[in-house]
Amino acid sequence: MNDKVENLILEHLRIVRADMSSMKEEMSGMRSEMLIIRQHMAGLLGGQTLHDAEVAGLKVRLDRIEKRLDLAE
């Protein structure tokens, strides 16, 4: 190969390497964002579970009150 072709190939490889480095940085940022989203979703699910448990407890108490007052069918 002549020098012009070799230099052209090396130039293209440098460009590809720079693009890959940029993509690597973007992927790292996206991973961090996904981790934050996952943690937020876990918090929301935990809150929903707690809310569901509280509602179930209130339902049990309400059923007991209805039975005591002979309001239950």
Q: Could you please describe the fold and organization of this structure?
A:
The chain has 73 residues and is mainly α. 90% of the residues lie in helices and 0% in strands. The chain contains 1 helix and no strands. It has one helix at 3-68. The longest helix is centred in the middle third of the chain and has 66 residues, at 3-68. The chain is rod-shaped. It starts with a helix and ends in a 5-residue tail after the last helix. The model has no long low-confidence stretch (mean pLDDT 93).
Percent strand equals: under 5%
Taking the alpha carbons of the first and last residues, their distance comes to: 94 Å
Mean pLDDT across the residues is 93
* Helix content estimate: over 70%
Give the topology string: H per helix, E per strand: H
